[in-house]
C-alpha cells in the first residue's frame, strides 16, 4: 500500500522553494542542437571545401587531358606524314604505270590533272562545311 508521503513524492513536479522570478539558465535547458549561425558557418565551410575539391579535380582532369592531347597530336602528325608519303608514292607509281600508254609527259599531265580535280572537289566540300558552320553561328536565322 502507498502511504501519503510516497504519493506526495510521485506528484512532485519541481522544487517548491524556487522564487517567483526564477528563469532557468541556458545550461539548465540543455542544448537543442547547433544554432543558426553555427549552421551557416558550417554551410560556408562545406561550400569552401567543396569548391576547393572541385578546383583540384578540374586541375587534375585538365592536366590529364593536356598530357593525352600531346600524345594525340604527335600520333596525328606521324599519321599525316605517313599518309603524305603514301600519296607521293602513289603519284609516282601512277606516273610510272601510265608512261607506257601515254608517254612520260602524258602520264605526268594525266596524274597532275587528276590530282588538281581531286583537290578542287575537296576544297568545295571544305567550303560547304565552313559555310554550314558560319550559318550556325550567324545572327540572321532565315527560319
Domains (count): 1
Percent helix, as a range, is over 70%
What share of residues are in beta strands?
under 5%
The assigned structural class equals: mainly alpha
Any idea what the shape is?
rod-shaped
Please provide the count of β strands: 0
Sequence of secondary-structure elements? HHH
Indicate the mean pLDDT.
Answer: 83
Q: What is the rounded distance between the termini?
A: 96 Å
* Biggest β-sheet strands, sense, barrel: none
Gyration radius from CA atoms, angstroms: 43 Å
How many helices in DSSP terms?
3
Residue stretches low in confidence (pLDDT < 50, at least 5 long) are: none
Description of the structure:
The chain has 143 residues and is an all-alpha fold. It has one domain. The longest helix has 102 residues. The mean pLDDT is 83.
Compose a concise summary of this entry.
With 143 residues, this protein is mainly α.
Any chance you could write out the topology, listing elements then pairs?
Layout (H helix, E strand, L loop, with lengths): L3 H7 L15 H4 L6 H102 L6
